Amino acid sequence: MILVTETKPKKKKGYELLDDEAFDLKIIYTWISARKNNLFCVVCKDAKTFLKQVKKSVILIEAAGGLVKNDIGEYLFIYRNGKWDLPKGKIEKEEKVKAAAIREVEEECGIKVSELNKKICNTYHVYINRGVLVLKKTYWYDMHCTGNFLLKPQIEEGITDVRWFKKEHIEPIITNTFPSIMDVLVEDGIVRRD
After folding, report:
1. I need a labelling partner for 79 at 20 to 30 A (CA). Which of 35, 88, 108, 175 fits?
2. CA-wise closest residue to 140 among 158, 155, 124, 119
């Protein structure tokens, strides 16, 4: 995880500082991937401007998804590529962000979203696609699902399981998910980051 901030983090322990002047995501990604430490920090004068520069230097893909809660207070998670995740996917050309979020959740899980509520946050993550570095920006929304649906994982998207979890039983998620998913759970208040 790379924290981009205008002030040094209060909990500096564990963060390795990266130089904002020499920062090149294409070069640093390989270096970071080989490190045991997974917490990095870039302290810069203007975080928004810095992030705009990073976006210009790589391919940017925009996606949308949701944190879905049902009538009995359970949260919906998917299992894809050996990790617990939240349903999300690429925004199609000419598609509105909120419409994409609903469509992706419904397609990946086999449910109907009954309510689209507040935007939770945006996350960014980096990956290699066909040898090219990609930055994915995901818009996350709080959603509600009313009714009893037979959960159906979208196998063609690599999803092998879809399950509802009570808040007090999400430990398997926390121990086997991505940092960006943890950011969504923290931002929504489901888990606390120590």
Report:
1. 35
2. 119
